[in-house]
Amino acid sequence: MKRIETPLPGVFLIEPRRFSDERGFFFESYQKEKYLALDIADVFVQDNQVHSVRGVIRGLHYQHPRPQAKLCGVAHGEVLDVVVDVRAGSPHFGQHVSAILSDENRLQIYVPAGFAHGYAVLSESAEFLYKCSDFYYPQFERGVAWDDADLGIDWRVDSPLLSDKDRRNPQLSKIPSDELPRYE
């Protein structure tokens, strides 16, 4: 298992060790001790699986005041995964990283608590899996506009399919600081 750093401190990719033969393949998608050795000490309390079709953009989501760390991967298909630092006071505030996660590369991305997260489906469909370090609380769900020009994210999607909720998310600069996680 290999940890791959990104330009955002605390956000990194994980390349699992994969064993393949004529029958198929095997890899550990999570094993507490091995992930602890990669500095992922979160206790994950909820697993989610999402099926989406080509062109869907989900995000950019975060939870406040009950932030969630996430460990994300793809069981089927290909997505562009995006993470944005939305922590008020962070030296990296408003910066983002993106990576292709797919059933081919089996990469995972670790999203620390306090970051916004989203993804765009690049294949015909995708099965997206993620673990969360806290439960989902609808009353604490927050979002940032996927097309916020200040963020400059290239989603690689021409005609995005969005939820009504994601269409209404505000630009990061319009979100009051008390509605954002704090950098510590």
Question: What does this entry look like structurally?
Answer:
With 184 residues, the chain is mainly beta. The protein is 5% helix and 40% strand. The protein has two helices and 13 strands; from the N terminus they run E-E-E-E-H-E-E-E-E-E-E-E-E-E-H. Strand 3 (19-21) and strand 4 form a beta hairpin. The longest helix is centred in the N-terminal third of the chain and has 6 residues, at 32-37. The radius of gyration is 16 Å and the shape is globular.
Task: Give the gist of this structure.
The protein has 184 residues and is mainly β.
The SS-based structural class is: mainly beta
Low-confidence region ranges: none
CA gyration radius, whole angstroms: 16 Å
Form type? globular
Q: Give the amount of beta strand, in percent.
A: 35-45%
Q: Largest sheet, described in full?
A: 6 strands, antiparallel
List keywords for this structure.
mainly beta, Jelly Rolls, 5-stranded antiparallel sheet, globular
